[in-house]
């Protein structure tokens, strides 16, 4: 990380736009699971901001848990596994699991992760992402249930998303337009 470098970042989605959309998704989830509980899984690190904001907008009994994964190189691993760097603390058997992601790009992470979690016998398994870049998809087995915003094929940062571990703390989503010389 080189913190001396300065970058030109243009705002694409403001904090107000993000929070308004997240509140809508929270209300949808609350309605869908009324009378039941949900088990939110935050995929570290990118989805921390989205998960916490969304969790506050879901009016249901809830467990929040965290997972950290890294995908094996695509193509060569026929097992379709992900390497688990940090696993869940509790069993998800019989739970209404909602996987929370900041972005779906190639789809590899979620394709592998959802297969792995499905083997643990949840009652239901749902995918919720703040951003979706469908133009980049290389898999066809990721069915996303809740999408905040469909975005073009451009690299975004902020609201949890990083560029070389920087910019996660921006309260908005922006495009990196380049380095300021
Ligand atoms: O659809 P895919 O092509 O698999 O890409 C999406 C994944 O990549 C990013 O995470 P990353 O592995 O960079 O880690 P981070 O969340 O810690 O930034 C992002 O947060 C998603 O988890
Ligand atoms: N920060 C960031 N991470 C990603 N991972 C996959 N796509 C993206 C993106 O556009 N921005
Ligand atoms: Mg991530």
TrEMBL record:
Q: Which cofactor does it need?
A: Mg(2+)
| Gene Ontology terms, MF aspect | guanine phosphoribosyltransferase activity; hypoxanthine phosphoribosyltransferase activity; magnesium ion binding; nucleotide binding
- UniProt-listed GO biological process terms: GMP salvage; guanine salvage; hypoxanthine metabolic process; IMP salvage; purine ribonucleoside salvage
Report the locations given in the UniProt record: Cytoplasm
Is Cytoplasm there in the keyword field? Answer: yes
Matching entries from Gene3D superfamilies are given as: 3.40.50.2020
Q: Does the keyword Nucleotide-binding apply?
A: yes
**EC identifiers of the protein:** 2.4.2.8
Gene Ontology cellular component list = cytosol
Report the Pfam families cross-referenced here.
Pribosyltran
Q: Where is the Phosphoribosyltransferase domain?
A: 16-163
Matching InterPro entries, A to Z?
A: HGPRT, Hxn_phspho_trans, PRTase-like, PRTase_dom
**Which UniProt keyword terms apply here?**
Cytoplasm, Glycosyltransferase, Magnesium, Metal-binding, Nucleotide-binding, Purine salvage, Transferase
**Which pathway?**
Purine metabolism; IMP biosynthesis via salvage pathway; IMP from hypoxanthine: step 1/1; Purine metabolism; GMP biosynthesis via salvage pathway; GMP from guanine: step 1/1
What reaction gets catalysed by this protein? IMP + diphosphate = hypoxanthine + 5-phospho-alpha-D-ribose 1-diphosphate; GMP + diphosphate = guanine + 5-phospho-alpha-D-ribose 1-diphosphate
> What does the protein in this record do?
Purine salvage pathway enzyme that catalyzes the transfer of the ribosyl-5-phosphate group from 5-phospho-alpha-D-ribose 1-diphosphate (PRPP) to the N9 position of the 6-oxopurines hypoxanthine and guanine to form the corresponding ribonucleotides IMP (inosine 5'-monophosphate) and GMP (guanosine 5'-monophosphate), with the release of PPi.
Q: Which family does it belong to?
A: Belongs to the purine/pyrimidine phosphoribosyltransferase family.
Protein name (Swiss-Prot/TrEMBL): Hypoxanthine phosphoribosyltransferase
Q: Tell me the organism.
A: Agathobacter rectalis CAG:36
């Amino acid at each position: 990380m080189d913190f001396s470098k300065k970058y030109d970042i243009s705002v694409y989605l403001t904090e107000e736009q993000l929070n308004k959309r997240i509140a809508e998704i929270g209300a949808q989830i609350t309605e869908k699971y009324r009378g039941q509980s949900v088990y939110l899984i935050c995929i570290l690190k990118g989805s921390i901001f989205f998960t916490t904001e969304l969790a506050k907008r879901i009016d249901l009994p809830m467990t929040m848990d965290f997972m950290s994964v890294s995908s094996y190189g695509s193509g060569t691993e026929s097992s379709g596994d992900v390497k688990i760097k940090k696993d869940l603390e509790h069993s998800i058997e019989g739970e209404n699991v909602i996987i929370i992601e900041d972005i779906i790009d190639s789809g590899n992470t979620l394709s592998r992760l959802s297969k792995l979690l499905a083997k643990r016998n949840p009652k239901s398994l749902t995918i919720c992402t703040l951003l979706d870049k469908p133009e980049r998809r290389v898999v066809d087995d990721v069915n996303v249930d809740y999408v905040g915003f469909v975005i073009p094929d451009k690299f975004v940062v902020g609201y949890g998303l990083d560029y070389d571990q920087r910019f996660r703390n921006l309260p908005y989503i922006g495009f990196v337009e380049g380095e300021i010389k």
